[in-house]
Amino acid sequence: MTNNAKYFDDLVNERRSVRVYDQEAEFDHASVQRSLERATLSPNSSNMQMWEFYRVTSEDLKKEVAINCMKQKAATTARELVLFTVRPSLWSERAEFNLEEMKKGFEKKSLSEKDQNRALSYYQKLVPILYKNDRLGIRSFGKKIFSWAVGLKRPMVRQVSKKDITVTLHKSVALAAMTFMYSMKSEGYDTCPMEGFDSKRIKKILNLPKDAEISMIIGCGPAGEGGIYNERVRVPNDKVIFEV
Ligand SMILES: Cc1cc2nc3c(=O)[nH]c(=O)nc-3n(C[C@H](O)[C@H](O)[C@H](O)COP(=O)(O)O)c2cc1C
Question: Which terminus of the chain is more solvent-facing, meaning fewer CB atoms within 10 Å of its CB: N or C?
Answer without folding.
Answer: C
